[in-house]
Amino acid sequence: MIVCVCNNISDREIRQAVDLGLSSMAELRRDLGVATCCGKCHTCAREVLNDHLSATVALQETVLMRAVLTN
């Protein structure tokens, strides 16, 4: 889904940016241009960012637990 209409940025692009190391709205603004024009996407973009950051942390914790259990 398109999150930022002004800059044609999708939720997928935001998730990919998180996977590449971005972790804040300031970084999304700087690198993708999210919420730099009208700003109406800010809330949705922040939700996508935070949800994916949380999912990434949960996945990392699961992988670490499996590594500990197998060793």
From TrEMBL:
InterPro entries with a match to the protein in the record? BFD-associated_ferredoxin, BFD-like_2Fe2S-bd_dom, BFD-like_2Fe2S-bd_dom_sf
Q: Give GO MF terms, alphabetically.
A: 2 iron, 2 sulfur cluster binding; metal ion binding
Q: Which residues form the BFD-like [2Fe-2S]-binding domain?
A: 2-50
Organism, by scientific name, is Janthinobacterium violaceinigrum
The highest taxon in the source lineage is: Bacteria
Q: Per its UniProt record, what Gene3D superfamilies does this chain match?
A: BFD-like [2Fe-2S]-binding domain
What is any Pfam family matched here?
Answer: Fer2_BFD
Task: Tell me the keywords, alphabetical order.
Answer: 2Fe-2S, Electron transport, Iron, Iron-sulfur, Metal-binding, Transport
Is Translocase included in the keywords of this UniProt record?
A: no
* Family classification: Belongs to the Bfd family.
Q: What is this protein called?
A: Bacterioferritin-associated ferredoxin
Q: Does the keyword Plastid apply?
A: no
